[in-house]
Amino acid sequence: xxxxxxxxxxQGVHGxxxxxxIQGVGRAATEIAxxxxxxxxxxxxxxxxGENVQGEQQQKIDVLSxxxxxxxxxxxxxxxxxxxxxxxxxxxxxxxxxxxxxxxxDPLDGxxxxxxxxxxxxxxxxxxxxxANTETPLESDTLQAGRDVIAAGYVLYGPSTMxxxxxxxxxHGFTYNPTSARFELSHPDMRVPAxxxxxxxxxxxxxxxxxxxxxxxxxxxxxxxLGMRYVGSMVADMHRTLxxxxxxxxxxxxxNPNGKLRLxxxxxxxxxxxxxxxxxxxxxxxxxxDVQPQGLHQRVPVYLxxxxxxxxxx
Length: 314
Ligand code: AFP
Description:
26% helix; 6-stranded mixed beta sheet; Fructose-1,6-Bisphosphatase, Chain A, domain 1; alpha+beta; 18 strands
């Protein structure tokens, strides 16, 4: 019998409660994967005409993926609110407003890759509310450091659809099997290789990086003996980094003095996975998981991957 997402119930103290939420992510993933496969035929590609809270142009698929994800979180009955890249404010799920968990999500990360049929992903994390569950959840419930995250993961929409997640007991990768219509465990106990792999960064920004990063980066390139790959879709770039080793970075630069990637639904979930897989996740001299969030859409610089490569840059 293949091992499915149900196995999460046996992992960690929060496993039984996380199982329905991660199963909900799995349902959203299959719907989003279906949407992506047929998007060109349904007129679902292209701009939606609006901007998200980051001032970035929303694609129609960003909006649809956000709706799908929210509906599947609602259907779990365990989620009181969702904080999404596509929504300025926290979305409270009124019928379950006294459920215990909040989910942070980037429903379709790397969506600029859609024009070239490149890989995209969904990134999520789960926290337990701080306010009493007799009250309406607040945005402040989402502002929890990565050390308080209960579960996190991503979905990679590539040649296959993969759901990689952790409930604090290592990182496990499940691949969608179209024959059984289930996610089946394909990559148990993923570990970041200690050496080798690739560096992954938008190097076109190198002359605008702040501080002495360019010197450190050049020294790392000479000493670490890494190859180079960059997709420009964090999920794809991090999936490779988890499996092959090396480092993914999006540092602060003159244009993005706080970095580009969002703390709550990009940096923290990926940092959680990297540390669970034995790697290192840094931001501004500390672990990504120790950064205290100040806002739902806050950005931070990130350096994620094999400890040996990360240490040469921070
Ligand atoms: P899009 O969703 O706008 O494509 O942004 C993707 C992303 O947030 C992340 O997935 C990438 O790692 C990063 O931006 C790429 O940014 P650059 O295009 O500046 O290299």
